[in-house]
């Protein structure tokens, strides 16, 4: 048995919103209704050097030190680094195996923040974007969900860009909305890829790989959450948008700070969200998927 009462893992935790989520989890856990003792947060990153640097930044963080949030300063939270590249099935499987070995009793929170936003638009960009943002996130959830304690939380960071607007043909939008199984969302991702490969996407799909990948994440989260709830599980699975955050991904153009961007993901991980499941959240509240 682990010496920790609660355990969380944050993917893509070495910078930007992911690193801010690690900080905010450590800061907000003591006031959370989930607080029932020592809290371990795994900061994950695909690059060991950057991951360990981020961990060192967290351990030396002045706000955390002043709040006495970390165990080394007398607080409840501990942060450790583990490698994880959600673009690699082998890496995801290795990470899941490590969690199972270290915490056979299970973990409480998976916050999936890792993702990419690539420049350009062609079949190659679409495949790379979907491989990481959609398929990678889905694989991480599928591998780690069996290890989430009943009543735990999974948070998938999507984007308001993933809402269903007029860039999609009406029948495509309806298929997203009507989907009951994750396979139906995956089929839509495959159709989008094929349409771009054949240059037959205009008038049916948006010409934006990131936008469609995040629609996929919202749809996958919704269908997987509904399917999981049908088993009687009390685990809450939601997606969210952190907002337009000033990070590398937005090339420094975002209006929000990373800490502001972390607010909604951390709310879904630790907050009293009235049993929300299968929903998409934006600016701290449930938001319609279609607009």
Automatic annotation (TrEMBL):
Keywords: NADP, Oxidoreductase. Gene3D superfamilies: NAD(P)-binding Rossmann-like Domain. SUPFAM superfamilies: NAD(P)-binding Rossmann-fold domains. It comes from the Eukaryota. InterPro entries: NAD(P)-bd_dom_sf, SDR_fam. Belongs to the short-chain dehydrogenases/reductases (SDR) family. This is Carbonyl reductase. It comes from Lithohypha guttulata.
